[in-house]
Predict the structure.
Amino acid sequence: MDAREVLEKLVSGEIDIDQAERLLRLDYVERIGNHTVFDMGRECRSGIPEVVYASGKEPEKVGEIVERVVNKKDIIVVSRASAEYYDEVVRRIGGEGVAFKPEARMIIVDRRGCSGESLGKIGILTAGTSDIPVAEEAAAIAEVMGCSVIKGYDVGIAGIHRLLEPLKKMIKEDVACVVVVAGMEGALPSVVAGMVGVPVIGVPTSIGYGLGAGGIGALTTMLQSCVPGLVVVNIDNGFNAGATAALIAKMRRTR
Amino acid sequence: MDAREVLEKLVSGEIDIDQAERLLRLDYVERIGNHTVFDMGRECRSGIPEVVYASGKEPEKVGEIVERVVNKKDIIVVSRASAEYYDEVVRRIGGEGVAFKPEARMIIVDRRGCSGESLGKIGILTAGTSDIPVAEEAAAIAEVMGCSVIKGYDVGIAGIHRLLEPLKKMIKEDVACVVVVAGMEGALPSVVAGMVGVPVIGVPTSIGYGLGAGGIGALTTMLQSCVPGLVVVNIDNGFNAGATAALIAKMRRTR
Amino acid sequence: MDAREVLEKLVSGEIDIDQAERLLRLDYVERIGNHTVFDMGRECRSGIPEVVYASGKEPEKVGEIVERVVNKKDIIVVSRASAEYYDEVVRRIGGEGVAFKPEARMIIVDRRGCSGESLGKIGILTAGTSDIPVAEEAAAIAEVMGCSVIKGYDVGIAGIHRLLEPLKKMIKEDVACVVVVAGMEGALPSVVAGMVGVPVIGVPTSIGYGLGAGGIGALTTMLQSCVPGLVVVNIDNGFNAGATAALIAKMRRTR
Amino acid sequence: MDAREVLEKLVSGEIDIDQAERLLRLDYVERIGNHTVFDMGRECRSGIPEVVYASGKEPEKVGEIVERVVNKKDIIVVSRASAEYYDEVVRRIGGEGVAFKPEARMIIVDRRGCSGESLGKIGILTAGTSDIPVAEEAAAIAEVMGCSVIKGYDVGIAGIHRLLEPLKKMIKEDVACVVVVAGMEGALPSVVAGMVGVPVIGVPTSIGYGLGAGGIGALTTMLQSCVPGLVVVNIDNGFNAGATAALIAKMRRTR
Amino acid sequence: MDAREVLEKLVSGEIDIDQAERLLRLDYVERIGNHTVFDMGRECRSGIPEVVYASGKEPEKVGEIVERVVNKKDIIVVSRASAEYYDEVVRRIGGEGVAFKPEARMIIVDRRGCSGESLGKIGILTAGTSDIPVAEEAAAIAEVMGCSVIKGYDVGIAGIHRLLEPLKKMIKEDVACVVVVAGMEGALPSVVAGMVGVPVIGVPTSIGYGLGAGGIGALTTMLQSCVPGLVVVNIDNGFNAGATAALIAKMRRTR
Amino acid sequence: MDAREVLEKLVSGEIDIDQAERLLRLDYVERIGNHTVFDMGRECRSGIPEVVYASGKEPEKVGEIVERVVNKKDIIVVSRASAEYYDEVVRRIGGEGVAFKPEARMIIVDRRGCSGESLGKIGILTAGTSDIPVAEEAAAIAEVMGCSVIKGYDVGIAGIHRLLEPLKKMIKEDVACVVVVAGMEGALPSVVAGMVGVPVIGVPTSIGYGLGAGGIGALTTMLQSCVPGLVVVNIDNGFNAGATAALIAKMRRTR
Amino acid sequence: MDAREVLEKLVSGEIDIDQAERLLRLDYVERIGNHTVFDMGRECRSGIPEVVYASGKEPEKVGEIVERVVNKKDIIVVSRASAEYYDEVVRRIGGEGVAFKPEARMIIVDRRGCSGESLGKIGILTAGTSDIPVAEEAAAIAEVMGCSVIKGYDVGIAGIHRLLEPLKKMIKEDVACVVVVAGMEGALPSVVAGMVGVPVIGVPTSIGYGLGAGGIGALTTMLQSCVPGLVVVNIDNGFNAGATAALIAKMRRTR
Amino acid sequence: MDAREVLEKLVSGEIDIDQAERLLRLDYVERIGNHTVFDMGRECRSGIPEVVYASGKEPEKVGEIVERVVNKKDIIVVSRASAEYYDEVVRRIGGEGVAFKPEARMIIVDRRGCSGESLGKIGILTAGTSDIPVAEEAAAIAEVMGCSVIKGYDVGIAGIHRLLEPLKKMIKEDVACVVVVAGMEGALPSVVAGMVGVPVIGVPTSIGYGLGAGGIGALTTMLQSCVPGLVVVNIDNGFNAGATAALIAKMRRTR
């Protein structure tokens, strides 16, 4: 029953105002619903695979979700996962096209058949050793999305010369974006953004203590940075940094 | 005197350890200094014009800085400026190639002679009317950097249909990036990031009150967003959002 | 061009994957857009009049918005407005059906012709004298939405007996909801929620100083309250409290 | 000894001012005390069952409280309870009319004999899977209070179409109120409040990390929301949301 | 109609359950109301005069409140008041028994006829010159309540010897309590509490900057103090400190 | 060598300015040192027993401290202690005059020989069951200092009538001070302070969740309270509350 | 009356325990007092001139303090002062030896007759132009204390080469300490501390906006820095930074 | 290829602008890189040994880093380490010159052959027993850097006389700097800074609870202190305090 019908019935007295109002509201929601039975799902909309966040969910629960989705999606990523989750996933859908990346804490279910051409190149740097798992998460999702990743880990600001070698390589290889992962004072992304000519995505990590503990200090530093070209994601959110970097890299391909 | 000389003198007893240590440190700083007399300046390094932040500085001070820099740089941008600053700048360096954009609170000194080809296209959206000055700042810097900007203002989440028209136009025109400016609860960037296939830069504005006032609420929402592809700049930092968007747009041109 | 067409062209090689992807995304947004040309607007969806938030906007800007909307909407409310805004609105659309409520800082444009039957009754209490403007804002919007309002102002917790008289009246009149506006320690809503059998909406106000200044103390108290039936809106948000109270009152009418 | 007597004794010199003052204060408190020997208890006052919060108390302690109260109250609810608490309760008062709802972490002791007619209908939505226990808590208390509950879980904002099916059902069934449980950025309640014509109660959950961790981000978003009709309870307080929703539903019954 | 009547009517079918419930709730509130028509008012209950907080209220509003209360109360105190408020009060109720203390920003209306015997002695210290207005507020209310006050201002911790002279005087005079007013790091109350054998009330003031600005630093220091015997009031709340000190001093009198 | 000697040597050239300056500084510190060899120790200065805070220290460490102090002090209190600490203390100094109060988590070493006359009476109330350990700590220290304690536990604000019985007893017994321990919203101290004529010491506890978790909510409410006569100690600091209450009670004795 | 006398009188019954306790406490405080009549004042103790903080005090008040102190002290510094304060000071004590430094907002009253030998050298750097007043305050106090100051202003991190010139000069001149003043992200002190071999004192300034506004961001960055040798003072506290730097420089002189 | 070559090729058309820009950027980074192949490493630059932060890293990881660095560095310090880490380090590089300091949680690898002359003296004080590990960390690094350390532990503010003995010793021995470690209210550094004539480095520790818990209270107090000469490091950062103190002590040696 569309709006016209409702209004006609209201005028003719078949329904009262309360009923009419509710019917119109229903019609409004239904119309959105009828026309958003998506054929292509989320990959199409944002270019990013379906993601299941494992942390805080039981392995069986995660396995169940993957099993339900696997027929509809070519690529599924389970983030913040351990080997236990991997075993559960394999138990349910078999091991074909399923990979576990322990450093990135990620399970990747990729059944596209072909890996396709490379989407582009990005760089990923970390200030310290403890920042590596977050960086690996960024790298894994970027690779799933078709990027090559050039890595430079533990190049933190105290020894600026350690930074130069990987940075030169990234510039030579013409990366489209650099992801910089840093905890503590979080100054590295500013330094990098001042030296490269491409967008830099800063990822604060929850390393740090005292005032600004839990990554708030690093996040604040990155947001306060005076160097343009530096954008930020939430603390420890390597996933989003890697995914956005891949979207930027994709710009090169999609003229 | 390089490190070898210092060490020789130390061994021969001409200098003591304290002196040697200081000389080595001086040598270390000097070597960096000698080799970083940049010829090309900041534009080269980051692709972003020289910026003078006017807020909190006297017009004369700003005028003085512009006058000093204008011969070395082709493009200078004075941000958070009023007409008073514009008058002072024109008084000192003349009006040629100097423009004042009141909505963006920005003075642009552009003496490149030619504006050059378009770098690419970006989209800029605001949730409310009060967010417009921040959006205009983003637009102005992106245009200076050679981008075309498609704008859609006051399309906030309460009426999602107001958002669709400008969004369709942006997708049709194939923008490389969408800047979304929003205060209060700051939910618009998430919605947009869920609908477009390109990176979204969220700019929280200092609109809002109560818990999360001053833009903290909007910033938090954007950082917490579950939708990948959304990165964030600091509250009211339209400048950085516009500059980064232009860098992303430039990806298309620079294969 | 719908999804099928896109896919056919892709298979036939007329378009490439990048083009196909963009076309599909455009199709997705367009489909939402085509089907959400709302006939009934916002009143229908949420039962709440169109609102213009005046604070931080020029009177001319507000006047312009009202002028644009007045033909499409029966009721428009301008909140946080002064007499200056009222004059501007009257100058543009004439004074018919336009009222200014200075205590509530609100302009109401009501051109429904008839005020209709009463929707129901709500109660509004304030702890102190300084909380009254926020309470008046709640009262004004509730009245616009068809409610009768029983008020009891300055009945704060220090003298609990001052509270009893208005509370008894509210229970006798069988209000559907009580809005309680309080700053400082914000304990009054808990006390009221413990005594009445209907939902209580607590509105913290920005009265207060020291630790918990700006209303944070009152907000925290209300959220921490052990007494069920107490829900909260943001600091000073009388508007939302009044509107929600009216929606609750409407429950009585709409069986 | 009432106030008059005190004052007479003071005048006659039998007591001094200090004693008189203390006696009057005692009289003041006693009078309140004498007249507030409640016959009907808390159910009457607020329409909500007696609640025992188990978290942080030993099972024996909780069992002891339940045993003491069970003769005076028809309905007792133990919240945040595990099976261990349930066993203890059954050990003390027997299993008749005692139910344990593990998902809601709740024990319900209901000895009313009859469950009575339905009070009304409410809807409960969650954004993610992790928000379900809080939603179940809301559902359990609402059902105890006589409501039917329509549930829609894991319908979060990333896939807005997943939201439409349950929302349509809720509108068709004419729910009196929708409880929306969401962590992370907490944007779902705003979206729902913009689509339904009834009050929405937002429940932020302690899901989330980085800036705004522990639910502060979701709470802030909900409080900052521009959409009227949305009220909020404290983080993870499903109990209060369910109880208030039931009070609102009750409005329909009690004209 | 008392509870018995209500229940009888319910059983006989004269009223239904909803009506009965509402009547019982009304009865509950009414009974509290009938029996708390206080004869002696607030002075009796807490030994503290009626207070009107002027800040944020118009002089006329304050004058109106004083005028209304003056016949029922012997002592009224208007806090945070300027001369303008004093003039307004005198204009309305005449100048008899009305005093203005500009340093304490307080108007005192005292119409008891006799000032009575001294209640006891307290000491008041400030760390700096800027803390004096808060200290004067404490002194004024303590004097109104019948205390003698020994003052020692600007004796801050940097020069501990400046503290000793007034402290010795306070101990000699056997004060019952020492109020210590301090901003910045707020360490003075700890030092004093370590040296005297009576309770110390710390009053943080909003002097200070940087981390802990607005008095939060001083408040935190006082709460964290390891020295027992130190209790605290909110930032700048000289009024409460003076009133509580007077209540403590009164202990001596009221055996 | 006193200051005069130093200056004479400086003038005569025996020492230079640097040496003179250091000698004077040494003299300054030495003079304080020589004259502060206290005979009476801390009991004299503040009327409060020596306290050892056990939390975070090994039992052996605590035992060692007690052993060292026990000959110099009549009374030692070990706070936040478990049975393990008690065993260690008894192992070292024997069990005579050593008591362990598990609910108060306190060991008391009292070797005064006689307990002496009662110092006075205080009242202690808690809002909930979980607040009891903090209240017991307050009670234990007050009793050590010679006070009788009237207790009323679990009388929280939701059922105000539960509060009246213990409050009446406290007023009848003429307590000098009431300690009120409360978590969550922390409103109980305000209510009590409005009903009694003696100082009230509020103790926020770390019970609570969401916004204001960890006791910050309760602390804020107590500091923001409009009711004079209410002073506050830090979260969970039952010790300080009990000690200060005893100091106030002592006022009655020490005219 | 010393402790022995008190105890004798107590034993003989001349005084009771309460009196004895109070007398002993008085004796304790008196003994500190008698022996701390300082001859040399504060300069001796800490090597830092007497300071009067003008901000928030009336010019007359400041003038009065200076007038009172000027005969006892050789050097007085009035910080956060304007010309108006200078005029008042000169009006009262004459202009001899009185200087006003407007950039440092400081009045210096120096009546030592001779300025003496140089104490040593320090360096002062600022990141931006807006940080200069804080740096000038540091420089002024360091010079009063006998230091030579090498300045390098506006050398912020965006253009690291601007930093090298002044840094090389500071190392050549062998400064004892470098004060680095920076707002926004506050990363400059870390960079400097990584390059020099002397202590660095970071001064965060209240420049900055959004998350970490008011200097909190810069303070956090400096505290979180991984580079040892960097210590921090409070936001905008140039005075303390300059004074401490001078104390460090003095180390060189005072072997 | 240097800048000139690049520009020549650009003019001759061999390369386009994009390529030229990237080549110039590469040249810029390469030049820094080529000239910062440091010969002397970090010891030279800052006078502080190479540090490995063990907390959050596996023992093997730490052992691997030490093994890699040990040939290039004379001194390596592993901080926040347990015996397990020590065993791993010894297993890999042998025990020669390797020491474990359990109280300081530090492993020191010192293969300089000779310990050299003493650099100078510093003092280290703690307020309480729980602050000792942080103080020991400061002592260990200062000793590695060649300082003698005079310690005074558990001298907290409650008993100021306990402070005087170690303070006198420090002044007599003419320490160059005093490190003061304190949690809770953190007032001790202010008191010490008011009594000594040398710089004081305050180290807040994470001891404390309630408002200002986790060391924020102590940090705030130290930053707010009015006593000049007091500088601060982050919470629990004994390492930085000890290292900076050693740098200050070194001033004496390095004229």
